[in-house]
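anyone seen this seq b4? input:
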Amino acid sequence: MAPTKRIRNLLGHLQSLVGKTRLPDDPHLAKLCENFRRQNKKQILAKPIEESRFVIIDTETTGFHVYAGDEMVSIAMLEYKGLSSTGREYLQLINPNRPIPEESTAIHHITDQDVADSPDIAIVLPEIAEFIGDAVLIGHHINFDIRFLNKYLKREINCQLRNPYLDTMLLFTSHTGRIGQYSLEEVAECCKITVVDRHTARGDALMAGGIFSCLAPMLSNPDESVNHLYNQQFSHDPNKHEIAP
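predicted toks r here
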């Protein structure tokens, strides 16, 4: 058997094992888990941008080490239909059950006292999962946020996100042809988005939403599929131009 075929067979076997993973005992959590597992990424990506549901996500945390003790302390999610906000939001402070380092508080200004009476992530995770649903996720350096969410989803519900995502930083480099890493402020400035409440989950989510609404029409037509925009973020053309003033 050719090596490529052996690898495909192994991946198929592993996927079948994942599909048989035990569901949570709680009926509500089990239903959420089933909904995530049934999501069809191809179908989500095939919908036109203008008809699609997007959720802009931003989180604040105790630090950068997802699997080495750091925890989420705040999350904001904003719903979009096409390129426009629906006005629906989910905002929540979260008790990390550990001290928030001073250097982290210096960035997002969330203290131990601020989250002392806030719920644990296990309590609010079902609400977060329901809000996300089958949306396309959007954020700046969104892999960071997704890794935290998947850590909790795997631990509490025994599943992980299968939603396609759009990274506003990658959309920016794709459109401009730039190479490198760019902060939310840098991209917002280029897109003429006012920087407000930086390093708050809602403030950063609002900026990411504004960047998405600015860049998406430059990369795809609204009646094109989300898949076209999804693929654009992984392309790079050095001959592209800066955003017009």
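Confidence is low (pLDDT under 50) at residues 16-20. Residues 162 and 182 are 26 Å apart (CA to CA). kinda curious what u guys think
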